[in-house]
Amino acid sequence: MDTQIFKPTQDSIRTACDIIRNGGVVAIPTETVYGLFADATQSGACAGIFAAKDRPQDNPLIVHISDYNMLKEVAAEIPEDAMKLAEAFWPGPLTIILKKTALIPDTTSAGLDTVGIRMPSNPVVLEIISKTSLPLAGPSANRSGRPSPTDAHTVYEDMKGRIPLVLDGGDCKIGVESTVVSLAGVQPVIFRPGYITKARLEDVLHKEVLLSKGITEELSTDEKVLSPGLKHKHYAPKADVVIVNADFEKYKQLVESENAAALCFDEYADRLNAVCVCYGSEKDSAQQAVKLFHCLRKLDEIGAGKVYAMMPSTEDVGLAVYNRLLRAAAFRVVNL
Ligand code: TXA
Ligand code: MG
């Protein structure tokens, strides 16, 4: 299959809508990362997403909507807390897990009785959802296990020959995937941290929001997981990444003594006698989020073997950065 890349124009958007209506898959930008989108109500279309990504069959897809009528079509129950969060953060980088309706087939929800729902804010994806009048399933547009793509060329690298069309809407503004919060249980639980932080969710709900264990700890293989994505291998560059929690002098000594590459903050590159890939300012977690996935791929491009990553803050948006980096490092952290 030939894979074309077009800027989003009236013509290419119409083509994208036609492909999706016919059960095909298109890569489309969102404000978080690029997604692979297909009709969430067609089992065969969603099977096409799983095939394009080589995605494990037990990992459910997020369903993207453009208005509140679609929310009613896909969610069997809409608790008051869901409306509060939707009003505060939609359209935007928040996915809310609710009980699903029969409109969402098992292929989409990977057999679960719940569905993750998000109203994205990127105008291109929003226009395509509303023009097709279909809820669209949309995982990140990477091959399974690779860092999520934040620009169209990275999508092309992973999806060439696998999907017919990539819409190139430029770089993603947020850079890490949406916060995933479940309202399907007794208490709200974050399954995946993102740009919308725990504190901001709690401010709106006026109650505690829990953090799922798999966010900062490796789950054992026999552990019951509520969100399958927590146990799958993720964001892995080919390089061997280890996170280092240490002061700068100790970090420098470790990197230089082993001739390793440094995945470091901008402020320190000048002082390191090593190949450096900078993932933003130490003080700016949101900037680190924008850059991280691109930097992980860059490490592969430069053929890095051993990589020592500077430990990010784990506060607020920093938790989303740390969670992705931790998975890229297969949970290896050294404390010096
Ligand atoms: O920002 C995003 O969310 C991007 C853009 C394209 O919208 N999408 C995305 O999808 O990151 P994906 O498939 O790469 O990640 C979805 C995560 C997975 O970890 C999955 O296990 C979890 O959300 N998830 C989806 N539906 C779920 C459900 N019903 N219950 C528990 N976890 C769910
Ligand atoms: Mg993903």
Question: What would you note in describing this structure?
Answer:
The protein has 336 residues and is an alpha/beta fold. 32% of the residues lie in helices and 18% in strands. The protein has 11 helices and 16 strands. Strands 1-8-2-3-7-4-6-5-9-10-11 form an 11-stranded mixed beta sheet, with helices on both faces. The chain is globular. It starts with a strand and ends with a strand. The protein binds threonylcarbamoyladenylate and magnesium ion (MG). Threonylcarbamoyladenylate binds next to strand 5, strand 6 and strand 10. Magnesium ion binds next to loops.
Provide the gyration radius in Å.
20 Å
Uncertain runs with pLDDT below 50, 5 residues or more? Answer: none
Small-molecule components bound: threonylcarbamoyladenylate, magnesium ion
Question: How many distinct folded domains?
Answer: 2
Question: What strand order characterises the main sheet?
Answer: 1-8-2-3-7-4-6-5-9-10-11
CATH class of the largest domain: Alpha Beta
Mind telling me the CATH superfamily name of the largest domain? DHBP synthase
Number of strands: 16
User: Which word captures the global form?
Assistant: globular
The percentage of residues in β strands lies in 15-25%
Q: Per CATH, which architecture of the largest domain?
A: Alpha-Beta Complex
- What's the mean pLDDT score? 96
Topology-level CATH name of the largest domain: DHBP synthase
Largest sheet data:
11 strands, mixed
Order of helices and strands: EHEEHEHHEHEHEHEEEHEEHEEHEHE
Question: Helix fraction?
Answer: 25-40%
Distance between the termini: 50 Å
